[in-house]
């Protein structure tokens, strides 16, 4: 069924605190737009310090309660499994709400969100499999560790993948026994509010999952610098990460920051060209290019460079731009007029710096959606490493192509960036693929693929792309404090001050 977004009335939302939606006390309201039409579809509060503090108090009370904090590990794992089932039962509603709110084509949204329930099942499994260590030590002692949940996780999520990026953190939070206060992007709060409601209805105790709405520079900042947070999780721009990370460091909170990216894709001449072009289009334009792992720098061996550029031009111009609810649509709008203008400004920058505009470079017109924030998928060629479009994150349907001579040249270009979130390699030479994977500066490397993730595989970057890891045991373990316990198993008398001269060991 083709759904008309225009039929959706403007909804007024508050914050989600202590198990239900409440009116915020801040006073001012923010408009939430449908990026495909520019229409206002909802309003949310710009939360005040008092609103943030109320959510934090609710989270702390839940963490210390018998209902959640005192819950048996196996009971909690079973509950997280039921939350996954509830998520799955509501997928159709969540698909459509997320497409309405962030403009991704429905087919993309469905393909992404359908995997999310298994994030919770994976971390529930880790909770069941968790074992604390017994450590062999010198002497007649038993040494072991105890891990306890760290407490409140403050989570600031972005607009590009509202539910997916939330769930990367939320699944570990709930399975570990922590609690959270989430500040979703002011552009895309609707599915976060809906998921909180779904989870409470499925049995999650009140206060475990709270949501405060508002602008990043106000509500987000107040959350990151709150004196009672124990861990900060933020996905966003590098500068936002620096500011939020510095604030959280003042209270010595754990941090996981996934920040900017400028993913290099190294294409060698032994790889099938058409397949490389198809991966290039997917990596660059999925999600309208609004991903931190966007394939934004294609580095192509000189012997196939011209043919690659020609084929990528043809592939890019075949992509269907349109109404995100139309099953035929392959590319939706960017999130806002501001983001559209930013992407178009980089088109002008690329031309001014001497890069060759291969295709795109302008706003796209979609019949019936004239006020939407659509941008033509854009390809620049003959880009050098000194150009701004090679170095700076654009965050839109925008990619560049640069030739390289050999493996060392490809690596030099790939590593010529302050970012280090992801990288991709296209080659049939197995030894070369592993050599490059070891030397490229990135936290994630794809060989002959792109944009793949799994809850068991760690996700995160190096350099200006952030710190910490989501997914995997690395993420789960970072939600605990480790306590070391040392037990004397001998029965020998001890009096240091009587036998000081004969003692041979102090520690």
Please render the helix and strand layout as text.
Blueprint: E1 11-12, E2 15-17, E3 20-22, E4 29-33, E5 40-45, H1 49-64, H2 73-89, H3 91-102, H4 106-113, H5 116-129, E6 134-135, E7 141-149, E8 152-156, H6 162-176, E9 179-183, H7 190-201, E10 209-211, H8 216-224, E11 231-235, H9 238-249, E12 254-258, E13 264-267, H10 273-285, E14 297-301, H11 305-317, H12 337-352, E15 356-359, E16 378-381, H13 388-391, E17 398-404, H14 407-414, E18 422-426, H15 430-439, E19 444-447, E20 466-467, H16 472-477, E21 480-488
Parallel strand pairs: 1-5, 8-9, 8-11, 9-10, 11-12, 13-14, 13-18, 14-17, 16-17, 18-19
Antiparallel strand pairs: 2-3, 4-5, 6-7, 7-21, 12-20, 15-16
Helix pairs in contact: 2-5, 2-6, 3-4, 3-7, 5-6, 10-11
Description:
- The protein has 507 residues and is an alpha/beta fold.
- The chain folds into two domains: 252 residues, Aldehyde Dehydrogenase, Chain A, domain 1, CATH 3.40.605.10; 184 residues, Aldehyde Dehydrogenase, Chain A, domain 2 (3-Layer(aba) Sandwich), CATH 3.40.309.
- Helix content is 36%, strand content 19%.
- It has 16 helices and 21 strands.
- The chain has a seven-stranded mixed β-sheet, with helices on both faces. Strands 10-9-8-11-12-20 form a six-stranded mixed β-sheet, with helices on both faces.
- Helix 3 crosses helix 4 and helix 5 packs parallel to helix 6.
- The N terminus is likely disordered.
Outline:
This protein has about 500 residues and is of the alpha/beta class. About 35% of the residues lie in helices and about 20% in strands.
């Amino acid at each position: 069924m083709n759904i008309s977004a225009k039929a959706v009335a403007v909804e007024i939302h508050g914050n989600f605190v202590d198990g239900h939606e409440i009116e915020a006390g801040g006073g001012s309201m923010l408009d939430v737009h449908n990026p495909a039409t520019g229409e206002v579809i909802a309003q949310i509060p710009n939360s005040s310090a008092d609103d943030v503090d109320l959510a934090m108090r609710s989270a702390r009370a839940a963490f210390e309660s018998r209902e959640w904090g005192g819950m048996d590990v196996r009971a909690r794992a079973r509950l997280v499994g039921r939350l996954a089932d509830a998520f799955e039962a509501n997928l159709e509603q969540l698909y459509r709400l997320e497409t309405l709110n962030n403009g991704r084509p429905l087919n993309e949204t469905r393909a992404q969100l359908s995997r999310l329930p298994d994030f919770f099942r994976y971390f529930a499994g880790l909770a069941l499999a968790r074992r604390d260590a017994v450590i062999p030590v010198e002497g007649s002692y038993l040494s072991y560790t105890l891990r306890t949940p760290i407490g409140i996780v403050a989570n600031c999520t972005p607009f590009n993948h509202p539910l997916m990026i939330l769930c990367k953190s939320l699944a570990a939070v709930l399975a570990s026994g922590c609690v959270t206060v989430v500040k979703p992007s002011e552009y895309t709060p609707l599915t976060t509010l809906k998921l909180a409601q779904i989870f409470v209805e499925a049995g999650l105790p009140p206060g475990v999952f709270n949501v405060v709405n508002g602008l990043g520079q106000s509500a987000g900042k107040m959350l990151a610098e709150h004196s009672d947070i124990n861990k900060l999780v933020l996905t966003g721009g590098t500068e936002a990460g620096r500011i939020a990370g510095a604030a959280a460091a003042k209270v010595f909170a754990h941090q996981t920051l996934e920040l900017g990216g400028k993913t290099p894709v190294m294409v060698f001449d032994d790889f099938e060209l058409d397949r490389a072009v198809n991966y290039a289009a997917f990596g660059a334009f999925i999600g309208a290019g609004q991903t931190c792992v966007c394939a934004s720098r294609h580095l192509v061996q000189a012997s196939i460079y011209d043919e690659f550029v020609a084929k990528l031009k043809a592939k890019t111009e075949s992509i269907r731009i349109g109404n995100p609810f139309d099953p035929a649509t392959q590319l939706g709008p960017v999130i806002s007029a501001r983001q559209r203008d930013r992407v178009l400004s980089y088109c002008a920058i690329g031309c001014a710096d001497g890069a060759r505009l291969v295709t795109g470079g302008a706003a796209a017109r979609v019949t019936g959606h004239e006020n939407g924030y659509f941008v033509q998928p854009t390809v620049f060629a003959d880009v050098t490493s000194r150009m701004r479009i090679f170095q700076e994150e654009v965050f839109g349907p925008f990619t560049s192509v640069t030739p390289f001579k050999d493996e060392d040249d490809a690596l030099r270009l790939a590593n010529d960036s302050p970012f280090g979130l992801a990288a991709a390699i296209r080659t049939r030479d197995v030894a070369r693929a592993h050599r490059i994977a070891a030397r490229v500066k990135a936290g994630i490397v794809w060989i002959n693929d792109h944009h793949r993730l799994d809850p068991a595989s760690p996700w995160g970057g190096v350099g200006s792309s952030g710190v910490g890891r989501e997914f995997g045991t690395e993420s789960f373990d970072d939600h605990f404090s480790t306590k070391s316990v040392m037990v004397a198993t001998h029965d020998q008398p001890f009096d240091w001050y009587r036998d000081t001269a004969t003692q041979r060991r102090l520690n």
